Queue: 3 jobs
Job 1
Amino acid sequence: MAFPKLDPGQTDKKLPKDEYASAVPRMRVDLINAQYDLQSADFSVLVNLVGDDRQGCEDVVDLLHEWMDGRYIGTHYFGDPSEEVQERPYFWRYWRALPPRGRVGLFFGDFAWSLIESRFKDEFDEKSYELRLDHVRKLYAELAADGMVILNLWLHLPKAELKKRLKKAKKKPADEWRVHDVDRDMLSDYDRILPICEEMVRRTTSDSSPWHIVESTDERYRNLTVAKLILDAIENGLNRKPPPRKTAGKSASAPVADTDFRRDVLGSVDLSRSLEKDDYKKKLERYQRKIHKLSLQAAKKGVSSVLVFEGWDAAGKGGIIRRITAAISARDVRVVPIASPTEEELAHHYLWRFWRQLPPAGRMLIFDRSWYGRVLVERVEGFASDDEWSRAYDEIVDFESQLVEHGMLVRKFWLHIDADEQLARFKSREQTPYKKYKITDDDYRNRDRWDDYVVAVGEMVARTSTEQAPWILVPANNKPWARVAVLKEVCKGLESLLER
Amino acid sequence: MAFPKLDPGQTDKKLPKDEYASAVPRMRVDLINAQYDLQSADFSVLVNLVGDDRQGCEDVVDLLHEWMDGRYIGTHYFGDPSEEVQERPYFWRYWRALPPRGRVGLFFGDFAWSLIESRFKDEFDEKSYELRLDHVRKLYAELAADGMVILNLWLHLPKAELKKRLKKAKKKPADEWRVHDVDRDMLSDYDRILPICEEMVRRTTSDSSPWHIVESTDERYRNLTVAKLILDAIENGLNRKPPPRKTAGKSASAPVADTDFRRDVLGSVDLSRSLEKDDYKKKLERYQRKIHKLSLQAAKKGVSSVLVFEGWDAAGKGGIIRRITAAISARDVRVVPIASPTEEELAHHYLWRFWRQLPPAGRMLIFDRSWYGRVLVERVEGFASDDEWSRAYDEIVDFESQLVEHGMLVRKFWLHIDADEQLARFKSREQTPYKKYKITDDDYRNRDRWDDYVVAVGEMVARTSTEQAPWILVPANNKPWARVAVLKEVCKGLESLLER
């Protein structure tokens, strides 16, 4: 994609006063109307406002709050990260701030600027910088695929203009307070920082998340141009048909042909493994002690972990999870059971509700079911369109790799039982009054879909098991064996990370 | 209220194995059923699990997750407060964690324990301790009035038993890892800490938030007793009629008779105040500079502020707020416009959504409308019952006093215009295309309620204006005058706080 230079060396973008005065009222009406139409739409609009003109960015935020309906704009300023933020992967705070469908989000000083700053101060090695750029591109791509309209605005002030502005402020003390040290720094570093800005802009622009350079010399030109770009973005979003999310529905054809290979994934699990009672008690005890010790070390070193539990109904997830939590101080572990998404969660990208849960430094977070619902139940039941669940594999891999890069332990367990064992457990639960509630008609219906799930699990494991965030297939026909196997794996994972 | 001693010196509460074995299945069924019935109910259940038996508390949490449906229990462990938590008033993290209606919340190591610890370590002077106890009582009272069922459980282990347990752990290394330093500390401080526990329990118990002491010596007795208490709490809640929240509806009689006095509150505002254009420009400039400087100092010193803007429709809130934000770096100020509550917000106490917004150290937070909606629109329109809005005054005073005690600046502005000025502004907005959207039929309907609002505003100011969190009535018929008046008050407030 060809991209204009940030600073083409002209400063001729001006708008006469009368033209501005006659255009503004119309623009304000259009913006408000577009904003109201957006409210019932199935997507959100994200405006990233960045630029070498810091003061211009602040002014534009105030302007948009005046011209639009401030109640429906989610404005977020991203400054120096707090401790809470630093303890999570880099994009955590951006995910948390994303606008729900129907709203406009205004991000101000987002990762674009912090990337540039870090690059300028040489805080990155080449590899980390490339990794992060890659995550930015993937983030934009997934949000856009989910329907979000993304608009990146760069407010550019030519060097000569910046110089003029600082000079003027000095002479006219009334304006002086509006000038920050950052502006003075900007001027002195201008020639070194601009190429970094240009590179970042060039390398993160795409059709679905374009950058627009807006020259900021003339306020009137800047205001109206920004407003026009936002208006166009909302209107283009509204005029798309059909909205990309609305295409859910079950397709008959499996989009991946090689299902046999995948069936083998589960076929290779040796379901005959089992443990005697005495042996179990001894080993359970040993690994619980170990996990306890390791959890204390992890808390001390600030190493956090994310464990994911998936598996067939009645495979014994709950029992295993309790064996882990019982060994760890309540302070250091949290279980997040994943049920159907709430209304608020549905108004966001499906990964949003998982991002916001991520643990602070030193803690263990256990997901009882997880984001893999996208490629399991949502795929099999047709709650997600083929497009949606097909692209989820890469989205998930990118998500988990960000956790790993942040230093977290990521382990994913599939608890495997066979259909006979499952039926036996259902029957036994039905005999046990306090376990009856765990068996519903849905559970029996899901059994009819066993083969579909086998394919889905196979493809999931094949496409999302990575060296750093591996799937561990646990034979679970024998509960003692499964429990000890999981505890052992968690210990192994923690040890390997703590040894570093 | 008479209250039993924490440690009556007996340890005879035991349950034989067979009795336990036969009772447990029934209890699990009942708990699960109660939990499911609760889901469609209009209240939540909060279980505070505290005690001198730390290990017992951890075990009970695991047990409840096994016996109940973990997906619908919100378990929160409150350990050492993070930086994020320390920057907010004491009860901030508890408010954030409160269960929504229909759910059970399980708080583990809540403020009861942290109060005891602080008292034990002498971190409080007498006055701060009393203040905090008072806030606890008020918190329980408001949540209970809102329908929440509150159950405080104290797990008590007699000293002799604790000694036995620690001894046993030493001999049998298999159990040793379950013993923490805190348990050893507990033993050595036992005689000094128990009276503090007793005092806290005695002084925070009430009919709507009772404490129950559960002896923890015998696990079977403890488990079944805790389960029974929780079951009873849920069932009693379900059997109440009618649920307290369901009583909303407009009553004809004003519950406070002295309306004339209150009418005078607004009657005393001198609406003739105005500023000439030149004078306005000069003063606006002066106070914006000042506010800018003060905001930098506040950021540096970690002093945060909460500004509340209420007023008649078209009184000019937006314009004033923008004059403030324009003077402060976007990093240091945030505006929260308050619209109708979302589904999630409605599932909580009405103050919940305001608590969660509170700013970190050094920031300014501006509420464009606020919790005062409870005693304004909700009162006048009958969205809140007489009971609900009548008790809101005290709830609000307690809320704001916690902000002030935490060191925040709290200022509340009522922008006052008269009915003629309002009508003129409505008409003028209707003539301005981009302001038309700000005028709806509702606005005209509200005008019919003018006199009701005058009474409501009067009572609000009379009952919630305090020395530390005062209402400032701003004559706003003349916008320049109002803007400068507000800026001046904000400066004054910041200065007084920064001088300390």
Job 2
Amino acid sequence: MNKDNISKSVIRRLPRYYRFLTELEENGTERVSSGKLAEIMRSTASQVRQDLNCFGGFGHQGYGYSVTYLKGEIAKILGLDKNFKAVLVGAGHIGTAIAAHMKFENLGFRLVGIFDNNQSIFGSKINELEIRDVSELQSFCADNNIDAAFLCIPKDEAPEIVGSLYSSGVRCFWNFTHYYIQGDYPDATVENVHLSDILMTLCYSMNEAVEKNEQS
Amino acid sequence: MNKDNISKSVIRRLPRYYRFLTELEENGTERVSSGKLAEIMRSTASQVRQDLNCFGGFGHQGYGYSVTYLKGEIAKILGLDKNFKAVLVGAGHIGTAIAAHMKFENLGFRLVGIFDNNQSIFGSKINELEIRDVSELQSFCADNNIDAAFLCIPKDEAPEIVGSLYSSGVRCFWNFTHYYIQGDYPDATVENVHLSDILMTLCYSMNEAVEKNEQS
């Protein structure tokens, strides 16, 4: 399979396919038609068939797709079997929510360290993982070949933290801060979550909806 | 100004313009060139001029843009002056993070109520706002003309909560659950934050980066 031929928009839909297939599997569903997948994906059956054909197609005409097989193939394309080793920096509310509730092992990562600069929480645990002193972050990452970091820290702390992560080999960042990592490290792989930008977008849509209602 | 002519992609960039202009204003910068804005926006000066021309253009050749004026105009386009009344449902880690740290008044919303179903936290406060019993949610929203709800609850609780919010007039949702609100309420305005989808996308990019490195 040549992944270079897969468009960005197909890739962006894969996590959603994966999520729905996981739900189907949990409900004991063994096979699913492209029509049913389309319904769940809010798409069309032909779009679904086209998406899955990008990967060589996993279905049989009139017989549907095997849920478990399809889920497994999508997992491989996404690299969810890679179990990248990750640390989380910043055990405040967002960091704790992420460390406590996300099923990393299903999402391609293995959380192996949590760090904070608040010494009153050093040693306390989230999901069996001890919160460590952030001053040990750099050596921990170098010693343990850490691949990724989840940044749940204030923006002004981010440049120094990212600098030490980068210098110990970390190249992958899930960034909840407003620090622009790729400006300083162009070869970093980054996903940003800018909650305030999303809320402003919601405000715009809400405002539009209100204005349309007033006009009609 | 006719907002209908503004493309979706320009709109999507506006929160970022707004955020950077806020930072410039906080740093005491009074005027900014399209070149400087382009640098901050990781864009080109001509793209920036084109974006801002959509709104009638706020700059003067060779003189740049007034930071405060431009920020104000973008705020108006986004509707940030509307102060939509919002409630937050689910005061766990994510909900608490959002209630405690987001500057809603700059983002178009006013948080006026926090609800949870855990009676051991009823009455405790986040940013001066008392956590209330979720059984009072529907009457509170109807009595207070609530516009929006931020949903930080488990997926299986979402259908019932959204149902009672909708029936008391709420049409705008910031949805951290995996419940598909628009499937049941097509006229709702929704922004979803699917953290696990974002993490899988990061995994894919990381995996791609690793494979490229191995090939080179």
Job 3
Amino acid sequence: MTGRRVGADALRDVARGAAILGTGGGGNPTIGRLLAERAIREHGPVELVPLGEVPDDALAADAGGMGAPTVGVEKLASGDEHVHAFRALEGHLGRRLTHVVCGEVGGSNSLLPFVVAAHLGRPLVDADAMGRAFPELQMSIPAIYGVRATPLALADQQGNTVVLTAADNRWTERIARAITIEMGCTAALSSYVMDGRQLRQTMVAGTLSLCQELGQLVVASRARHQDACQRVADRLGGHRLFDGRVVDVGRRTETGFARGHAALDGLDRWSGSRLRVDFQNEHLVAVRDGEVVAAVPDLIIILDRETAEPITTEELRYGSRVTVIGAPCDPRWRSAGGLELVGPRVFGYDFDYVPVEALAGGTAR
Amino acid sequence: MTGRRVGADALRDVARGAAILGTGGGGNPTIGRLLAERAIREHGPVELVPLGEVPDDALAADAGGMGAPTVGVEKLASGDEHVHAFRALEGHLGRRLTHVVCGEVGGSNSLLPFVVAAHLGRPLVDADAMGRAFPELQMSIPAIYGVRATPLALADQQGNTVVLTAADNRWTERIARAITIEMGCTAALSSYVMDGRQLRQTMVAGTLSLCQELGQLVVASRARHQDACQRVADRLGGHRLFDGRVVDVGRRTETGFARGHAALDGLDRWSGSRLRVDFQNEHLVAVRDGEVVAAVPDLIIILDRETAEPITTEELRYGSRVTVIGAPCDPRWRSAGGLELVGPRVFGYDFDYVPVEALAGGTAR
């Protein structure tokens, strides 16, 4: 065993940190945590393997969920469907998958790989494919390197399983989304089959440990009466973009996504200012008094202003007092190939990406 | 070789007969015929095996298309996707499929099995699963006997392939329909994997030969200046329900189906009467002057009044002069289990099934 063992007691911190890096999306972290805790209690702790130690001949796939977080909090997963999806992919490949991978750090999608890893006794790679969460399947760093999302397996609680092989990642997204909607707007997913060499080239190293560290940081800072929100921003090399009160939330579940926006009235030094955050499962763009202060692929993180607990899009409530942080994304997202997948124009915005440190650097640190 | 060899020259008759038994649906027969003719020219004739001679240890699946015929006539299939779907199912099973089967006699779905059989050099069973065509996947005689539609494979021309394993046949229909819509409203399909014993128990014997015979009958009757429509009705033990002129056609492509109705004004002995035929890909119900004269699962067949050429729902035109025939379905459809799958109430009608010979017997022979 080359990795460290992660038990159920670590998952609360992982979940908290995952929801921070999830930038509002990735599914509800509490539900994923409860499923992972149960799986580890029943099957034992999970071996978390550093990305650099994954052997070349490893064969891995991610395990997680697809769909609208707004539905995920009402139609609870059982965890079995995630095991079914992973196994269906193995059946299709005709080969054993040696490692479980996290597709995106973010909400439940950081915890569900623990469920599958515990159930099947497979090591989990300490990494993810985004360094954050994104709403669509083709939005992953491996895709920048030409890795296909398919073969891909989807499974639901009714006992339905689908294995998809698609012409390209955009077709994968279209067809898998349609299946997910039919399965009831959420589905268990396994995809992006890679060997060890591909994993090491394309994944973001250490992000599951980073989730745990961020979770611990929030708790420790609160205990020491420190400004936990600022500590999170600092740890991520990010910028405090806004403190404010939620005065409007528009949220709808359409085409299988939670889409909408939140409007915030400023507090303290932002008094008199207004910030608007748009989201499609994840936060996409933050506009302060008419000016873009952060945009995809950079991370836009909303925390409870007092507790620094991360707030996902489906939990945003009128009246909440929040802190908004902008943090730089993995540098590979800032390449031409990365911005083609996840830049602002991909989400329908008519402006080019500018790094958050250039936008917010002068004003907010 | 136990079966007879079917060459390209036979396909015109098969297509004509298939469109008769297809009761308006099953996809456009001309397109299926052109694909089958090309496949046989390139790969040689198809061995058509009598149902009774299929060995117990055979392993077979159907090959055909799913979707809206209204789209199928515009977005032409290439035939390759049908081979891909069949092979994807083999890959999933990890076993060679020994025989190709026809899922439904009706339009292109009677011809597409010839495409796959010719391409792959596999024998085709002279039978189908309905003795007609029906619009949804769970509507098959094997399903009455508890045979599952899944594992099922769908493929499209873009290179996308899906293998589905579903909890039951209704879930199969829901999920496969959603995938088909996303693939562009038509897809190639392979499903209903069965061994030889299951095939012999559940399939309708000889229906591909019957298609060919009906096609020949129409041509021969015309050549002899006989009433070809009446000859078709007689061969099927059916009833001439109406002669009339199409005065209204409502047709829309929705939820992946061609849905609508046609209204006919009577000619000759039906002068002053009106007949309405409703369809969902296939003709569902015929109502003459307010009285049901034929309903699913019995066959409602619309032929050109002069030539006896079958008219599919997407070809119905204002002004066409047609003959409407009602013919009895396979007796297994009339069982409680059969009517649960395809009786009038399944399609939203508020009346029970009455056999066409009881409804029409006194009036029209």
